[in-house]
Amino acid sequence: MFTRKLDKKLLLGLVISAVCLLLLFRKIDFHKMAEAFAGLDYRYLAPALVLTFASYYLRAVRWKFLLLPIKKTSLGNLFPSTLIGYMANNLLPARLGELVRAYSLGSKEGIGTSAVFASLVLDRLCDGFTILLVLLVTFFTIRLPAGMEGVEHAMVTGGYVTFALYVGVLAFLFLLRRHTGFTLSLVARLVRPLAPHLGEKIDGMLRSFISGIRFPGDAGSIMGILVSSLLVWATAIWPVDLMLRAFGVHLPPTAAMFIMVFLVFAVMVPASPGFIGTHHLACVTALSAFEIGSERALSIAIVIHAMGFFPVTVAGLGCLWRDKLSIRNISENTSQEQLREQ
């Protein structure tokens, strides 16, 4: 059943990616696109690459703080596992890289995969609220050309929807942690009419999951999480600004923040592994708000995607090879561990 569901999700993602690519390339003048690439200033690529890996390293630092209530972990294990997880997200469907990342670290540190995965839920919540902050700053600082009011309205709407989603997730986790019995019975009542046989399984999974969620309580750790979250996204946004400059596009720094918001929304949409198509369409759409031509915008989008895809994928595969692991072995071992925990 899981395989069939995964195949359907993968097929849907491939269709959406194909549609996005069709929309992008249907009216492109490839001669102008070649001219845009010919004008690329390669001097900006090296600092962008350094900042990209700095962002992943800072993710490992934040993960260390999030795991402190469970165990004091080593950055020597956290950083490679982070690279492995993002490599897997680039190559596998349905964001399975999160599970790969959890298993990779759990096997090195002797922590259960469920507990590590629970810390990654907190990790994603930290990302969500940091991006909401970026969104808020962009609202008050960005100045789009005349006629782009619709784009600004769409951003505001997207911000409200995302904020409501994250508040809902936080409320559910709070209730699940403080009032576990009540929350599980409520979930069971909601699930029963749709899939009666899944009630007990979901109950067991949620109990196992919530037992692993532990947020650091000391001020130092909380400050570390806040500061590292801001730095994670600062070092992720800065390369976008550098890529704009590499193509001779000089916009205020808030433009890179504006583009990043679009890219974050893009990865929420089902797509092929690596977010091909959706990532590019989001970037081109954001650049069009600044009246950047389609050919140059698509060239920029391709380079931004490549800078985020190939370096971490190669580095993650290298870490996987060094650890003598494979995606298939991780998948099999994770399934066996989940069966034991149930």
TrEMBL record:
It holds the Pfam family LPG_synthase_TM. Keywords: Cell membrane, Membrane, Transmembrane, Transmembrane helix. InterPro entries: L-PG_synthase/AglD. It is a multi-pass membrane protein. The chain crosses the membrane at residues 42-58, 116-142, 154-176, 222-244, 256-277, 297-321. It is found in: Cell membrane. One of its GO terms (cellular component) is plasma membrane. The keyword 4Fe-4S does not apply. This is Flippase-like domain-containing protein. The lineage of its organism: Bacteria, Pseudomonadati, Thermodesulfobacteriota, Desulfuromonadia, Geobacterales.
